[in-house]
Amino acid sequence: MNDIHGQELTRDDVLTMMQAYKTTSLLRTGVQLGVFEGLAAGPEGAEALAARLGTDPRGMRILLNALVAVRLLDLDGNAFRLVSGAAQCLVPGRPGYLGDMVHVMAGDWEWEALRRLSEAVRHGGVVVPENAETPGYRYWEDFAEYATAVAAPTAVTMADALDPWARGRSRLDVLDVACGHGYYGFTFAQRHPAAEVYSLDWPNVLEVTARHAERMGVRARMHALPGDMFEVPLGGPYDLAMVTNVLHHFSEEKATELLRRTAKALRPGGRLAIVGFVTGGESPAQDPLPHLFSVLMLAWTSNGEVHSAEAYQRILTAGGFTAIQTHAPKGLPLRVLLAERSATGEPEEESAAGTGRAAAEVPAPR
Where are the transmembrane segments (predicted)? Predict the structure, then answer.
């Protein structure tokens, strides 16, 4: 049998994997201390940079040498400088800036969960006390604040895909479920002045969402729906619902339950837009990122994992949706799935019973 990777695993490969967390730690520390931004203007010595950034000189010297060792910096005599390409990726304000993603992809929340991965494998699910299913989980504040580097291009892909349907419509009431940063709804609203966005998430997250709405010029058209996506009255009916970066937190059955609930809040013929990882029929070696993300879901949720294209077909069909399309943001592993609510029947009214919120408290679309 041929090795699908095309090469033999070596001892050096294994040793590199064992130390990969050190590279991540160095990158994260460089971003947190402002090293890359500090060197944006040109080369500088360790003592001068330490004085400017307010760190210990010896600590800075050791850090900078280690950043050279992992090829994030270069060394010219006693002066350190950014490697080619680092300014675009690691200096705030540059168009390709990714540095803030360390707060999400290399934040303490994920590190703690993955540190206990062996326990999660033994138990078949989450073992950390605070996790993706914890109400008001503070990680989602960091996600909302810092995940915009990946969200922004994905939101453009979604808006592009929805444009032919949305263009020229006199009303566009949008429900954004698990909105987080809000970029998907707000990017759509920037293009379509008729769009009113109803942003659903935990109250602590919606504070961050509102700041993004203000910065993007759509705050007057954002309406907050604080609470649990499975319990809070959704209001409606809406023309468009967005369910982004959340279905992988649940089993196929639970994801179907959420989409059925969402469908009831949509007008017949309304649209659904989903963002998330999707696995295909190829080997995990050919498309590794969705499978690596499933590992985090194992450590962080009770039954979550990345769903396959076939599973999404089942989830959407059972949830009451048809005409499924898939769109791929350029250069990103995420997928945007669009679907249409069945045009037959009327959406059921959302009941407020047992939720602790009166129906009158839910902002109603115009």
Answer: none
